[in-house]
Amino acid sequence: MRTWLLAAGLAIGIAAAPQPAHAADLIILGSQGSISGVRDMAAAFERASGHKVIARQERDVLATVNAGTPADIATLNPPLIDNLIKQGKVVGNRVDFARAGIGVAIKAGAPKPDLSNTEAFVRMLRNAKSIGYSTAGSGLMVANIIKTLGLTEELKARTKFLDGFPAAEGVARGEVEIALQQINVIVPVAGAELAGPLPAELQQYNHFAVGVLAVSKEREAATAMVRFMAAPENAEVLRKGGLEPPAR
User: Fold this and answer.
1) Would strands 131-133 and 178-182 be described as parallel, antiparallel, or unpaired?
2) Which H or E run includes 91?
3) pLDDT at site 18
4) What is d(CA 225, CA 154) in angstroms, rounded to the nearest whole number?
5) How far apart are CA 85 and CA 78, in angstroms?
């Protein structure tokens, strides 16, 4: 019978995970939108459990899973995890992991705009020399917000679509003055900084869930990590990188 040890005294106060005698090697798949939180959780779980976790960013997590690529955990939007469960490609239950709000990226050191309410946000957009966001994920939400505000045509000539890399990198390189993107994707970008989140009345969220892959050869350890990622005690691990626990 295995002997389980509880990790204690962790500096960031994360919930301890059971530490087995056998240390597994796990691979967790994440996208650009989720990888920051995935990496933070992977590092925390390694310290708490003794397992080794590789957090791998994929251009298309779903395509990687559908190809049968060896891995242990997938991070996707909740409906996609549900579909993979129906297809038998994810085992066990879907576990909601995090949500990401949208923020405004500015050049590091630049004056921060007022984002306290819708009127201030609209004023910022109208005063910006150039605006960047993607054509997928949070970029679709941004486009919808701008459309709802009736600003699509007004901003069209000053809007640049930034795909394949964090939009905040476009700010850091001087390609656009401001960028609108998931907060957790903005935070790690050198040369840019988070001016703040969208006003509460405009905010939208991208939701992430995790599931254990049927191809995993380390299901017990993978299941332990999935539970660890969703544990309320570990919410601060998410928050430090700009994500939030899922609404409950």
Assistant:
1) parallel
2) strand 90-107
3) 52
4) 47
5) 11
How much helix, strand and coil, in percent to the nearest 5, is found in the chain?
Answer: 35, 25, 40
**What is the predicted pLDDT for the residue at 119?**
98
pLDDT at 24: 83
Instruction: Say which residues have a Cβ less than 8 Å from residue 61's Cβ, sequence separation at least 6.
Output: 29, 30, 31, 74, 75, 76
* E strand or H helix that includes residue 30: strand 25-30
Amino acid identity at 226: V
Token pair 């939009």: residue: 167
Q: Kindly give the pairing relationship between strand 205-213 and strand 73-76.
A: antiparallel
Q: What is the pLDDT of residue 137?
A: 87
CA dist 57 and 35 (Å) reads 6
Closest CA to 30 of 53, 50, 12: 53
Go through the chain and tell me how many residues it has.
248
| pLDDT of 14 over the 70 cut | no
Cα 72 to Cα 55: distance, rounded to the nearest angstrom: 10
The pLDDT, as a whole number, for residue 206 is 94
CA 70 to each of CA 136, 200, 226: distance values in angstroms, whole numbers, following the listed order: 27, 40, 17
Do residues 179 and 192 make contact, with C-beta atoms less than 8 angstroms apart?
yes
Question: Residue 157 — very low, low, confident or very high, per pLDDT cuts 50/70/90?
Answer: very high
Strand partners, 193: 106
Secondary structure letter of residue 180 according to DSSP: E
Rounded Cα distance, 242 and 121, in Å: 20
Distance, CA of 64 to CA of 75 (rounded, Å)? 11
pTM: 0.84
Would you state the pLDDT for residue 192? 97
25-30 and 178-182 strand pairing: unpaired
